[in-house]
């Protein structure tokens, strides 16, 4: 029998490395074949044992696929109908792909069809011509790596799109194609963050790509709060305060992120706002990271999308030459919704050539962005034109998607605002609704007792009752004591009224339950708190091979 001075708080036969034991003790790893030597009283963990992996990886939080999503997936496996509104993934919720781009990419994927004399019976001539055009831009078709910055011909098409949109020249050498916008954002944050003293200003609430990546690369997130009372507006006084606070902690603020239109908040930045924040970037020496992936998703007419690049160049010298800007776009959003194709780009403005070279070098490490995604991007920036055979169909399809999203944004906002203790700003753009849920104190108390953050508690109850899978506002950041949830506006238009009715029924009953003392006590009776304190004696002989310390067997106490 081996005596171990310190009894571990719990015993798990697969986690030997957590045991503190005497120096020099050898442990059989699996079935006695491998042996590891303990040092300084602790068995050395292997490099990929959880306790020894990169701490930054462990600290990353990504609520969009967090606890709620996992529970929803479990319920789905058990046969419950789940409405996944947690990710802006339009095709997963039934959006049909646009015909023309799929025809072109299908032909690029199966180029032998182009040699078939009947190809013209199935595919329109402009799709055939476009497929030939894209294949001619590759060196070996879709199965060959491209330049690490993307195919030069498609980067040229992106530059022409930007020129048409902004009215200023764009240089294809400063445009890199990526596997979705996320990869570009990660690459730029990696380039900016040098250590934990480097701060990145991020809007709160924010899309957690930013918090997760800043954590992963070991930087510091500097939050600036958007103002819910003024329709999630950006108030630069808040940003200034955040910079001052960060500086007082020794943080060098190096970049500012804007998401325009906003995720999860849906707001569109005005021209005045953009001018003000570009001036701020000049004054504070910040690079502006402009996440403009929702630029086609606008559901009001007062504030059309204007790119940060256009305003930067409109402002003239010195700002137009001084402020460094990186802008991101994607095929995952807009009326395309081609999330699975992983196509995106970023454009760099006012970055010195040496830095662009470094970014190119790092992009080369992963060889090439995926080529079908690049072709989708080419099609997005260069869609059918008036006079092309596919123009009418393409326009009808894209208008139908955007028109329906506009209607769904309205149905959702109105639906939320009709619920007890729920207030919601109109979704001006993007794909989300972010209602504030005013949780009664007794609901907050109940959440604490259940060991849950209050908005997680509410969203889990909503999921169990209705099958609606949302993301708690805490995953995006929110002011202390204020609670939200995020849902996409993507469920099918015809299903929307029923979904909102089911939400309202759940919410109003929830509020009824927790607002009155009697309601709260009824809940406690229905779900009494569970107690987990259990002690047990584990006999190592029962645990099978691999549970052998220095040839001894023994008893452990565990709880
Ligand atoms: C604000 C924002 N930026 C970037 C992305 C990433 O998009 P992609 O699919 O292009 O990586 C998303 C996805 O939802 C997003 O909401």
UniProtKB/TrEMBL annotation:
EC id: 2.6.1.2, 2.6.1.4, 2.6.1.44
InterPro entries linked to this entry: ALAT1/2-like, Aminotransferase_I/II_large, PyrdxlP-dep_Trfase, PyrdxlP-dep_Trfase_major, PyrdxlP-dep_Trfase_small
Keyword Nucleotidyltransferase: no
The protein's required cofactors: pyridoxal 5'-phosphate
Reaction catalysed by this enzyme: glyoxylate + L-alanine = glycine + pyruvate; glycine + 2-oxoglutarate = glyoxylate + L-glutamate
Residues covered by the Aminotransferase class I/classII large domain: 126-489
Pfam family, one: Aminotran_1_2
UniProt GO MF annotations: alanine-glyoxylate transaminase activity; glycine:2-oxoglutarate aminotransferase activity; L-alanine:2-oxoglutarate aminotransferase activity; pyridoxal phosphate binding
UniProt xrefs under SUPFAM superfamilies: PLP-dependent transferases
Alphabetized UniProt keyword annotations: Aminotransferase, Pyridoxal phosphate, Transferase
Organism domain of life: Eukaryota
CC annotations in GO: peroxisome
Listed pathway(s): Amino-acid degradation; L-alanine degradation via transaminase pathway; pyruvate from L-alanine: step 1/1; Photosynthesis; C4 acid pathway
GO terms of biological process kind: L-alanine catabolic process; photorespiration
Summary of subunit composition and partner proteins: Homodimer.
Described purpose of this protein according to its UniProt entry: Transfer of C3 units between the cytosol of mesophyll and bundle sheath cells to maintain a nitrogen-carbon balance in the C4-dicarboxylic pathway.
Family: Belongs to the class-I pyridoxal-phosphate-dependent aminotransferase family. Alanine aminotransferase subfamily.
Name used for this protein in its record: Alanine aminotransferase 2
Organism: Asparagus officinalis (Garden asparagus)
């Amino acid at each position: 029998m081996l005596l171990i001075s310190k009894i571990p708080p719990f015993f798990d036969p697969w986690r030997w490395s957590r045991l503190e034991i005497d120096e020099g003790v050898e442990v059989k790893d699996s079935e006695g074949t491998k042996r590891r030597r303990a040092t300084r009283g602790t068995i050395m963990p292997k490099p990929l044992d959880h306790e020894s992996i990169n701490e930054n990886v462990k600290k990353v939080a990504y609520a969009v696929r967090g606890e709620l999503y996992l529970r929803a997936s479990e319920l789905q496996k058990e046969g419950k109908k789940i409405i996944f509104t947690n990710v802006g993934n339009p095709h997963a919720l039934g959006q049909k792909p646009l015909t023309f781009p799929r025809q072109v990419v299908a032909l690029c994927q199966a180029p032998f069809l182009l040699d078939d004399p009947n190809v013209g019976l199935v595919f329109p001539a402009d799709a055939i011509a476009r497929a030939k055009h894209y294949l001619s831009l590759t060196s070996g078709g879709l199965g060959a790596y491209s330049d690490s910055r993307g195919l030069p011909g498609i980067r040229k098409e992106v530059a022409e799109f930007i020129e048409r949109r902004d009215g200023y020249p764009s240089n294809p050498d400063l445009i890199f194609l990526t596997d979705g916008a996320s990869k570009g954002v990660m690459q730029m944050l990696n380039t900016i963050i040098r250590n934990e003293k480097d701060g990145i200003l991020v809007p709160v609430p924010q899309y957690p790509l930013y918090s997760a990546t800043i954590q992963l690369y070991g930087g510091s997130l500097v939050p600036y709060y958007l103002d819910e009372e003024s329709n999630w507006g950006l108030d630069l006084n808040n940003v200034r305060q955040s910079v001052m606070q960060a500086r007082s902690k020794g943080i060098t603020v190096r970049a500012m992120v804007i998401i325009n239109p906003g995720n999860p908040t849906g707001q569109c930045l005005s021209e005045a706002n953009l001018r003000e924040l570009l001036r701020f970037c000049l004054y504070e020496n910040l690079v502006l990271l402009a996440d403009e992936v929702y630029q086609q998703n606008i559901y009001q007419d007062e504030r059309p999308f204007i790119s940060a690049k256009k305003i930067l160049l409109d402002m003239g010298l010195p700002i137009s030459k001084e402020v460094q800007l990186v802008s991101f776009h994607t095929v995952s959003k807009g009326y395309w919704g081609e999330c699975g194709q992983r196509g995106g780009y970023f454009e760099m403005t006012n970055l010195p050539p040496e830095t662009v070279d470094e970014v190119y070098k790092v992009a080369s490490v992963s060889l090439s962005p995926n080529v079908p995604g690049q072709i989708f991007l080419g099609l997005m920036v260069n869609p059918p034109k008036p006079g092309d055979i596919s123009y009418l169909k393409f326009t009808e399809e894209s208008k139908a998607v955007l028109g329906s999203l506009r209607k769904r944004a309205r149905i959702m906002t109105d639906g939320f605002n009709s619920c007890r203790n729920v207030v919601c700003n109109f979704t001006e753009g993007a794909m989300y609704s972010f209602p504030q849920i005013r949780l009664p104190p007794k609901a907050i108390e109940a959440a604490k007792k259940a060991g849950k953050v209050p908005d997680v508690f509410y969203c889990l109850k909503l999921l169990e009752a209705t099958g609606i899978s949302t993301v708690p506002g805490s995953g995006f950041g929110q002011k202390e004591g204020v609670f939200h949830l995020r849902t996409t506006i993507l469920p099918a238009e015809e299903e929307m009224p029923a979904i909102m009715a089911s939400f309202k029924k759940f919410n109003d009953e929830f509020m009824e339950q927790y607002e009155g003392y009697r309601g709260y006590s009824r809940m406690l009776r229905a779900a009494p708190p569970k107690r987990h304190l259990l002690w047990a004696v584990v006999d190592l002989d029962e645990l099978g091979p691999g549970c052998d310390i220095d040839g001894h067997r023994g008893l452990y106490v565990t709880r």
